[in-house]
Automatic annotation (TrEMBL):
Annotated function: Catalyzes the reversible transfer of the terminal phosphate group between ATP and AMP. Plays an important role in cellular energy homeostasis and in adenine nucleotide metabolism.
Assembly description: Monomer.
Protein name: adenylate kinase
E.C. no: 2.7.4.3
Enzyme class: transferase
GO MF assignments: AMP kinase activity; ATP binding
Keywords: Kinase, Nucleotide-binding, Transferase
Domain spans labelled Adenylate kinase active site lid: 165-200
Catalytic activity line of the entry: AMP + ATP = 2 ADP
Segments crossing the lipid bilayer: none
NCBIfam families registered for this protein in UniProt: adk (TIGR01351), PRK00279.1-2 (NF001380), PRK00279.1-3 (NF001381)
Database matches in InterPro entries: Adenyl_kin_sub, Adenylat/UMP-CMP_kin, Adenylat_kinase_CS, Adenylate_kinase_lid-dom, P-loop_NTPase
Amino acid sequence: RKIYRGRMASSSVNLEDVPSVDLMTELLRRMKCSSKPDKRLILIGPPGSGKGTQSPLIKDEYCLCHLATGDMLRAAVAAKTPLGIKANEAMDKGELVSDDLVVGIIEEAIKKPSCQKGFILDGFPRTVVQAEKFDEMLEKKGIKVDKVLNFAIDDSILEERITGRWIHPSSGRSYHMKYAPPKVLGVDDVTGEPLIQRKDDTAEVLKSRLASFHRQTEPVIDYYNKKGIVADLHAEKPPKEVSAEVQKVLSS
């Protein structure tokens, strides 16, 4: 293990000011984590397939860091890191951020202590070229992806799942017309205020997002299938059953 000989005061948080209960909680968490196996995971699946439900559970169980590329890009831009500045220049011109830049931002992120036991990568790679560049970067570090969890689900089920979602904007409470309907159609149970549907939750938006998923991202599953590291999950099942599948895959 590396020993860091830096002055504690130079870090952004002065540990003397951190409540003891928080320090102990973090210490116990790290001790529990030290016995966990390292895992480097990629989650792939169309919008609404349940990746967002499962990733925090996997993250906590295996002490991994969660790398959502959209959030990381925004954070790098806000922090004005050298890569963030480059990404911002591209976005200002209305261009897509290059694959090399995104891989660079991921490379920076996985150096953090929170990523010591591994990571969950969500939303990347979206194309085979991105997967190849990502693998090249990992190879230079002498590490590789352990498992790709493929949240396999039929388009028609997704349409029912997503177009049935309604939100209460001010509280974030969400309802589903089939699975968790409000007591009165179209209004929030608590406040009686009207519910709205997110712009992304319409059939038209979903169709175009699914089309680009099938076109660009399904070949990524084939790419990792050839490496023998893909686990197909039955993502149409209830979340608890999907969690059980994930546990089975990751503990084997």
